[in-house]
Amino acid sequence: MQDNFQDTPQRTSPFDAIRHVDERGNEYWSARELYKMLGYSSWQKFQFAIEQAKKSCENSGYAASDHFNLQVKMVALGSGAKRKTEDYHLSRYACYLVVQNADSEKPIVALGQTYCAVQTRKQELAEQLAALPEDQRRLVYRSEMAAWNQHRDQLALFEGSPDESL
C-alpha cells in the first residue's frame, strides 16, 4: 500500500521550531528563545513567568531543578568586554508551565496555552491507546481508517473526482 501522506506538508508549531536536543538525546527549550517568541520585550519581565512556573512545578511535587536547568554563559558585548548571561534549559513540562504562567493578553501566549492543552490531550490519548489489548487497538485503528476513508470519499465527491474507485 502506497503512503499518500508524503505529499502532505508538515506544519511545525513555533514551539517545536525552537526545541533543542542535547548530546544525551534529551529535549529542551531555551527560556531566552521562548521569551522572545512569546512577545516579551525584556528578559526581566519574563522572569516573573519563570518564577511562577517553578512554584507550580514544586507545588505539583516535582523538583524545579529537574525541569529548569540554569545555564550561565559569557557573552561578548559590543565593547569587546564579556558578561554573564542566564538562561534556562526547560524540559517540555517546564516549557508548558512557563507558557501557562505567561501573560495571556499576548496572542502568541494564548496560542501557546492552546498548543499545550492539545499536546497534553494527544499524549493522554496515546497512553490510553497503548494500554488497550491489541485486539481492541486494531478495532480503534479500523474505526479511524473507516472514518478517514469516508472523509476522503466525501472530498472526492465534492471535488468532482472522475475516479469512480474513490
Plain-language structure description:
This protein is of the alpha+beta class and 166 residues long. The protein has helices at 14-17, 31-37, 43-59, 64-67, 92-101, 107-131, 134-159; strands spanning 19-21, 27-30, 68-76, 82-90. The protein has two domains: 13-131, no CATH class; 133-166.
Tell the overall outline. Answer: elongated
- What is the rounded Rg? 22 Å
Helix-strand string: HEEHHHEEHHH
Query: Strands of the biggest beta sheet: in what spatial order?
Result: 1-2-4-3
Number of strands: 4
Q: What descriptive keywords fit this protein?
A:
single chain; 166 residues; four-stranded antiparallel β-sheet; 15% strand; elongated
Briefly characterize the structure.
This protein is 56% helix and 15% strand. It has 166 residues and is α+β, with helices and mostly antiparallel strands.
